[in-house]
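Changelog entry: the UNC93-like protein MFSD11 record was regenerated in this release. Current contents:
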Amino acid sequence: MRTSNYPNLKAVLYLSGGFFLQFVAVTSAISVVSTTLRECGFKNLGFYSLAVNYLVFGLCSLVAPPIIRKLKPILSMTLGSVCYDIWLITLSLPAILLKSEKLKLYFSYNQVVAIVLIASIIMGFGCALIWVGQGKYLSDCSKYKIERKGVYSSIFWFTFYISSILSSILAALILGSYPQEYLYFICFIISVLSKVILISLPKIQTEEQDQQLFQNNQPEQVDLDILKLITDKQMIVTYGVFLTSALSNGFRMSGLFSFLTLTQTNETIQNQFKYASYAQALFGIGQAAGSALFGYLSVKLKSNFKLTQGAIIVHIISYSSMIWCNELYKFGFLSFCACFFLGIQDSYLQNQTQVIMGAEFKQTTEAFAIFRLFNSVGVTFILLIISNLTNSERFRQFIIGSLLFSIFSQIIMIKLFKFRQQQGDIAQDNKNQAIESLIQKC
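Regenerated structure tokens:
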């Protein structure tokens, strides 16, 4: 593999490593928080915490681009990571309060709820910084080799999803033997370690290059602001896929773990947590497999249009397995298979949106901000819906509805979105960017 053919590959690997550690910690907590806080007597606080987090995440995505331009992606992602730490350490408070009579003298039930929700707001702001910054940084890594976006995206998400596997195993091992506050404390320590890699990311001098291109009247369209891009016809067509991704994210975070525990009526609470976490590890394996599949297809097909067609097949397989699992409504081998296929779908969607935002739009920072806005607000409302899924019939309605909407959104993309590869200008884009790069060096 020649370095010249894969520019900034080192930066992609560093970024992947930093997010690997960060989300081993965060995903371990997110996947179980709705259930564990309920067991502590705080009812739906876990759902509300995640819903508030994603709502703030979406709203802050609107103001994230100017902050990221000012601070640069590396510092922005590091500060966002610190916001995750605050949320993680706060989650241990309800469990500790349940066991400590002394703490109950200082913290009432409502005060604990307020503290967790405030930490969720802070985390939501951090999510906007770290994810919009990630989208900008990863997109910049292939700025002058646009056909590498699919490969770089698959590398990042493959590593990210390996962290999902380990996070499920970590949660299973700890919750199966120790109190839940141990899990949150260990997650906090791992999250702190991720800062070492994030702050050490290699710098990519794209902001300065973009500014020079603007001064030379190059076709970067940097004058179009985020509000205008929101109403752009091309962007509007993608909103269905954004919400499809939100359906997958919301179910992964809260619905899947709740579903897996509900199907184990004869097991103790600790065993329910343990077995559900192990099943979610198959979800992570599916995510890693889906990311590798997407990377392979992106190299072979060289077309986001064809990759979007493939997404329909992925939706049908994954949701069909979940429907079958729901009809049995009993934990077993099929539960692991359904988790695996859902993982493939989740990964495919993440890679699809990453590549579309990075390759199909000139303004990558604003494009990723809009994606995060719609995705996060969508997750907020989906989490509220999932909090009411308490039996087989409700899960059936949710899963079938998700399948139909996912297929519909992909068909809209296929029919109405003007993919650059379809227009035959991918080669011309690379030629223009190569000329621009030479101009910068001269």
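The radius of gyration is 22 Å.
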